[in-house]
Design goal:
This protein is mainly α. The chain has a single domain, classed as Alpha-Beta Complex (UDP-galactose 4-epimerase, domain 1). The chain contains 7 helices and 4 strands; from the N terminus they run βαββααβαααα. The longest helix is centred in the middle third of the chain and has 18 residues.
């Protein structure tokens, strides 16, 4: 799954509203594919048009990416939040194994007190496992078969996204 950034990204926007800084979590060497929301929305339109002319294209998986370089998720967050006036991402990184143990303990405590008190935990051990690995994808099949090409280059995607996150 490609990480989506830009307009409509409620997850990062809500964190920026509620926290003064964000701490790096997971493997600092892990990279991921990310895509700008405008390009990924455009891919849906292109796919719909392609399916209207050739129904045989349906029933298959297509990876959709854009010109966003594969990078560590926190390096991308730093690029996206640069206009907020401060370095929003802490330079410290919590090692994976500490993060995993902390998450397991929080989930255990949450489960133990659940009959009496509800704790909303917006992450899980699966999330922590996801942060540990690199995930990259290529859009070659979508380009060849669907005719998909991103509308916005990486620089324009960052400009549009910064405006969105600046107001978050």
């Amino acid at each position: 799954m490609v990480a989506i950034y830009g307009e409509g990204d409620a997850r990062l926007a809500s964190r920026l509203q509620s926290q003064k800084s964000l701490m790096r979590l997971g493997n600092k060497d892990a990279v991921m594919s990310a895509g700008y929301a405008g390009n990924l929305a455009w891919a849906h339109i292109v796919a719909n048009q392609a399916l209207q002319t050739d129904a045989a294209l349906g029933g298959e998986a297509y990876f959709i990416t854009d010109d966003t370089p594969d990078m560590n998720r926190w390096d991308l967050v730093e690029k996206l939040t640069a206009t907020r006036g401060s370095n929003i991402v802490s330079t410290r990184n919590i090692p994976y194994w500490i993060l995993y143990i902390m998450t397991a303990l929080i989930m255990l405590i949450s489960y133990a007190v659940s009959p009496f008190y509800e704790i909303n935990v917006d992450f899980s051990l699966d999330t922590i496992l996801f942060l540990r690995h690199s995930y990259t994808f290529r859009r070659t099949k979508a380009e060849k078969r669907l005719g998909y090409k991103p509308l916005y280059d990486f620089q324009q995607s960052i400009v549009n996204s910064r405006q969105y996150y600046k107001n978050a």
